[in-house]
Amino acid sequence: MEVFKADVAIVGAGGTGLRAAIAVAEADPSLKVALVSKVYPMRSHTVAAEGGAAGVVQDHDSLEYHFNDTVGGGDWLCDQDVVEYFVAHCTEELTQLEHWGCPWSRKPDGHINVRAFGGMKIERTWFAADTSGFHMLHTLFQTSIKYPSIKRFDEYFCVDLVVEDGRCQGVVVIEVATGRLTFIQAKAVIMATGGAGRVFRENTNGGIVTGDGMALAYRHGVPLRDLEFMQYHPTCMPGTGLLFTEACRGEGGFLLNKDGYRFLQDYGLGPAEDKPRNKYMELGPRDRISQAIWHEEKKGRTISTPYGEVVHLDLRHLGERKLRERLPLIYELAEEYMDIDPAHSPIPVRPGIHYTMGGIYAKLNTETPLPGLYAAGECAGNGVHGANRLGSNSLVDIIVFGKLAGVEAAKFSKSTQFSNPAALETQAKAVQERAIGLVTKTGGKEKHSVLRREMGKSMENGCGIYRTAAEMQATCDKLGELRERYKNLDVEDKSNVWNNDWLGALEVGYLLQVAEVVAHSALNRKESRGAHQRLDGYEQRDDANYLKHTLAYCTGDGPPRIEYQDVVITKSKPGTRAYGAAGDKAEQERKKEAGHG
Amino acid sequence: MTRSNAPLVWSLFGAGGVLAALVGPALVFVTGIAVPAGILMSHDLMSYQRMFGFAQSWAGKIIILAVIVLFLWHAALRIFHMLHDFGIHPGVASKLICFGLPFLCTVAAFYWVLPI
Amino acid sequence: MSAQMDKRRPYVRSMNSWWKRDPFFVRYMVMEATSVLVALYAVILLVGLLRLSQGEAAFNGWLGALESGPSILLHVLILVVFLYHLWSWFKVMPKTLPMIFVNGKKLPADTITYTGVLLAVVVNLIVLIILV
Amino acid sequence: MADTTKTIEIEVLRYRPEQDKEPFFQTYTVPFEDDWSVLQGLQYIKDDLDGTLSFRWSCRMAICGSCGMMIDGKPRLACRTFLRHYHPNKLRVGPLEHFPIERDLVVVVEDFIRKLESIKPYIIPKEPRKLEQGEYLQTPAQLEQFRQFSGCINCMLCYAACPQYGLDSKFTGPGVLALMHRYNADSRDGGRGERMALGHSEEGFWGCTAVTYCSEVCPKDVDPANAINQNKMGSAIDYFLRFVAPRGAGK
Ligand SMILES: Cc1cc2nc3c(=O)[nH]c(=O)nc-3n(C[C@H](O)[C@H](O)[C@H](O)COP(=O)(O)OP(=O)(O)OC[C@H]3O[C@@H](n4cnc5c(N)ncnc54)[C@H](O)[C@@H]3O)c2cc1C
Ligand code: SF4
Ligand code: F3S
Ligand code: FES
């Protein structure tokens, strides 16, 4: 088996992985970086992000506001030390991207322009029209080419970590073009594999967002944290789940029910005004809006379509000119995919799974409990987003913590030596055999596409916007069944060259494991918080028992073991999470209280 | 990377292309259709005397040269590309044909028009 | 493992008659082919020049040849080709100019093309008027 | 989901290097909905009819650039081309032209990536700036000078459209040259001189014969033909100026 030695191996070349790679290269050009990605870097799903990235720039804004929005938005499940670090580094990282060439939209005077985003008190979302993630990713990819120490492994699929002596010492990868396996021996490994939205059926995520890194870390004993918090985005295309960015609402779009009524005012987000107002109405947080749509459906005030119930995203009043300038991609999506001209008709939308708040348990400095393994970006559960991520916080999460992971992994790799490859190679060979065994095995009966579909459906039934114990239990049972059936898999394609039937089978294996963690973590959390909302007697937030992170541990061939861990609270005591006029009132009261106390 | 010498011919190609668009149709119509067929215009327009007189003036010489030479070079580059497009890759032979001939014609044009 | 490497066997397709594959390419080739008649016209003029330099009799011979039926037909064809050249030249023009901004908006390609065509038509007419 | 009544025949070019000597067409009958893209049709084939069919895809929303292929002879993104436009006729799908076929609809793209890497596609600062100094100022008008060219999703449709690339793959090609122009035209950048050696060469701008089909097929209106051809004049001027002022503009 081929062996490649790297000081730092990075799995994933989305925004996180690329930023980490550059950070290692800048920290010490003599460190060799292996940057692995199952797709060419610019295909990574960061490319799909539309709306923008948050960083405080306006004079009347402050880090404290950004902190409060994030912690409140996360329903106080955020680790506040992490959030403090985060908000303090967003702007600097966005400026760094500007220096590297990112074409951020500008004000007439040449300064960065910012737009409003849901749940944010002040406009602080940097944007490049509505292709912000695309531009960030390409800027990072192209900049990474400058550094000769970064050796890319494009279209190499990671099948496992190699753990020896209690530390992570490398990864085993499949070269997609040849089916050949390579062992990348590394002193430190960074996981940057992105989210797991594909455990659900209707979602905004790309086909590659299959939670691979989470499952791999989990198998090696690293707990997955807070995975029950899966974000529904309220405005997705019925059927495909493609996203209409929150910026649609940031620019002033309305959400209407079947009577043309701005229903959000009935859900504590009002009063309704014509102009967008931060944290009011359509600029409320995603979880609240998705939940409101769910209630509208129950009240029979939504519109029926072949793809389910929808509400209307109304952009007509913004006018074609502004739409073409600020939301060109959205315009195109509506026109091409739905045959709708958003300047003249409202767009039917429904909630779809969008973002994985939880992930591989990582501390503030991105290290995981497994020495030598770091995690950052959407695959990490570092506690920055709590129970609900605010729009435009993720694109900064990936660069702030991507960079930090690079710096930390570089430091770690310098403090350690390569160990004797012999023992590692035995392990790597075993991994190889297992991976190849999946293809060469005959007599299986199950198709991975079938398992994937059943999983997605079951997740939607049990772990949707609102959850009950009975439904969650049914999903847990179903996932247990799928876990068993997976053992009886048959991979139809037996070839070596570009066999993505094989890779698809591996991905379904990852997905099933992550799905099980999501479902069991959800079932065990007997309260409602952020994106986890229950209808079976646990409708309230329960800080006494559940102001805690979920930690899910792998138990081998079975459901996860669930443990809990305290949330780090530094300066923001859990309060009422309110938006609209109620939010203003709550804030005033909090201030008063702080003044008295 | 070696610098391409394409700009030499390309400049002439471009100039020829513009000229062919701006005056080509009118010229073809006059010299090839209207005058010879006597439609709308009299034969006199292209009589030996008029033409000779025209070619005697410096302005005349320049116009004649510009039209003939630039048209030729405009065509030369396209023909060169076409050979390539048909799978005859740029080699000495195709360069000789595509650029050698127009070069000879250019020399000839100068040689013939200057003494007039 | 190098045995597996050999399994990769990229297949390279032929470019034979590529220009027949798409109407767009056919149009491109027609545009390129205009050059043959442009060259022919230049050569006709060049011969005229030679004849002019050889004296009146020679020149009249050339004029005579122009008056023949086939020659006139050929020139009609050449005229068509020049007109197509005119059109296609300005059709490509927007690609060859740097972007032009008017009031912060990019000048649309069609505007450039039509302006060019209009200009060419006017210049051709002026030439005609001068000559007549 | 709505009732599926319509079906369409999709002929897919298959090539499995380990068993096929050369590519051949295989026909699949696919039930579809009106809003289905060609990509969804292929996914249906892969999931339900034939798991051995290989193709690249990810975002489904015309932004990742993975799913470029020849659809009825035209280079298109499969995720942004809809089956209803072909129904009731059948539909032919093949791998992108001008690239070697790796397998089925997957082409070898290493050449493209190598080219992309070769043009220094990153800011080479005109004036270095520290993070503490904040962002470079860039007016919307300056942004407009390159914004369009920065929209390239690397889908390579333009390469499948460009016969000059097909005839001679040494030509750097539309997408990458557009990217080169994108950096040259950025007010923050001072690296034009370093990049133009390639630009001035036969492999650069001069390999283009202005076919312009590249711009026609580009799904993001990058207009690579413009990026290339607007540089020819400058390159030509530079060619001649060199003799007048040997250390002349732009090198
Ligand atoms: C449609 C959409 C719109 C969004 N809009 C916004 C927004 O406006 N603002 C915002 O802040 N956030 C937004 N987000 C969220 C944000 O884009 C993502 O959270 C973020 O980009 C994730 O980046 P990442 O680098 O962690 O992962 P990704 O970009 O997903 O990269 C993952 C990488 O891991 C690699 N990988 C995965 N598994 C393997 C394996 N087994 N082997 C090898 N490589 C592997 C992949 O190839 C890829 O390179 C949006 C998300 C979506 C889906
Ligand atoms: S220029 Fe257009 S067609 Fe070419 S790769 Fe870029 S986006 Fe695709
Ligand atoms: S198609 Fe090719 S030849 Fe030039 S204009 Fe486009 S690169
Ligand atoms: S799947 Fe991403 S461009 Fe088509």
Report on this structure:
The complex is a heterotetramer of chains A (597), B (116), C (132) and D (251). With 597 residues, chain A is of the alpha/beta class. Helix content of chain A is 37%, strand content 19%. In chain A, strands 1, 2, 6, 7, 8, 9 and 17 form a seven-stranded mixed sheet that branches. In chain A, strands 18-16-10-21-22 form a five-stranded mixed sheet. In chain A, strands 11, 12, 13, 14 and 15 form a five-stranded antiparallel sheet that branches. In chain A, a hairpin with a 2-residue loop joins strand 13 and strand 14. In chain B, helix 1 (6-22) crosses helix 4, helix 3 crosses helix 4 and helix 4 (58-85) runs antiparallel to helix 5. The model of chain B has no long low-confidence stretch (mean pLDDT 93). Chain B is 78% helix and 0% strand. Chain B has helices at residues 6-22, 24-37, 48-56, 58-85, 92-113. With 132 residues, chain C is mostly helical. Chain C folds into two domains: 2-96, Fumarate reductase/succinate dehydrogenase, transmembrane subunit (3 helical TM bundles of succinate and fumarate reductases), CATH 1.20.1300.10; 97-132, no CATH class. Chain C has a two-stranded antiparallel ribbon. Chain D has nine helices and seven strands; from the N terminus they run E-E-H-E-E-E-E-E-H-H-H-H-H-H-H-H. In chain D, the strands form two sheets. In chain D, strands 2-1-5-3-4 form a five-stranded mixed sheet. A two-stranded antiparallel sheet of chain D has the order 6-7. In chain D, helix 6 (174-184) packs across helix 9 (224-244). Chain D is elongated and about 70 Å long. The interface between A and D is large, with 64 and 66 residues. Bound molecules: flavin-adenine dinucleotide, iron/sulfur cluster (SF4), FE3-S4 cluster and FE2/S2 (inorganic) cluster (FES). FE3-S4 cluster is lined by residues 161-162, 164, 174, 208-214, 225, 228 of chain D. FE3-S4 cluster binds next to helix 8 and helix 9 of chain D.
* Cα radius of gyration of chain B in angstroms: 17 Å
Shape of chain D: elongated
Number of distinct beta strands of chain D: 7
The H-and-E topology of chain B, N to C, reads as: HHHHH
The coarse silhouette of chain B is elongated
How many helices of chain B? The count is 5
Largest sheet report of chain D: 5 strands, mixed
Strand content of chain D: 5-15%
| Succession of helices and strands of chain D | EEHEEEEEHHHHHHHH
Distance N to C terminus of chain B: 46 Å
Instruction: Kindly report the average pLDDT value of chain D.
Output: 94
Derived from helix and strand composition plus strand pairing, the structural class of chain D reads alpha+beta
The CATH homologous superfamily of the domain at 7-19 and 48-113 in chain B is called Fumarate reductase/succinate dehydrogenase, transmembrane subunit
Tally the beta strands of chain B.
0
